Amino acid sequence: MEITRRIEELIAPSLESLGYDTVRTRLTGSQTRTLQVMIERSDREQLTVDDCANASTAISALLDVEDTISGHYTLEVSSPGIDRPLTRLDDFDRFSGFETKIEMQHPVDGRSRFRGALLGVDGDNVLIVVDGDKASLPFPLIKSAKLVLTDELIEAAQLERRV
User: Fold this and answer.
1) Which terminus of the chain has a smaller tally of CB atoms within 10 A, N or C?
2) Burial 11-49 (b: 16+ CB within 10 A, else e)
């Protein structure tokens, strides 16, 4: 996990200067390693193949100079997609009203998995309606979260390009 954090800290300023926000950085594999970097445009316009190519060129140059990853690896730069991961606290506000799945590092109120409509955030807590009840989940304890592909989400993506 530490190497992923170092990579993200290294590439984020360059990507931001190019007009991109980093959604998630993930390094997988042991023999054949893959560095997956999900980005979105800072202006929230639709990400293009050229955007991914520009970001890939910048990331490759930085990683080659810093030699952060030892050995051979494959770099994948992509869009987060419609049913995107929610990785930053402001993502939970931005996608308020949409259905999400959240997995916690430790149980909250006896549960580790939550699925329901996002209500946004309150301080460092993510608010969600689960089975008609409001739950407050500490953001630092969220292991993973992603939007659920629903008709409403697809419609919003088509109409507003909000996602």
Assistant:
1) N
2) beeebeeeebbbbbbebeeeeeeebebbbbeeeeeebee
- pLDDT, position 163: 45
- Domains annotated on the chain, with CATH: 2-78 (3.30.300.70), 89-160 (2.30.30.180)
Residues of the chain with pLDDT under 70: 1, 160-163
Q: What is the pTM of this model?
A: 0.86
Tell me the C-alpha distance between 162 and 143, whole Å: 24
Sheet holding 20-28, edge to edge: 20-28, 33-41, 73-78
- 31 Cβ contact list (under 8 Å, min separation 6): none
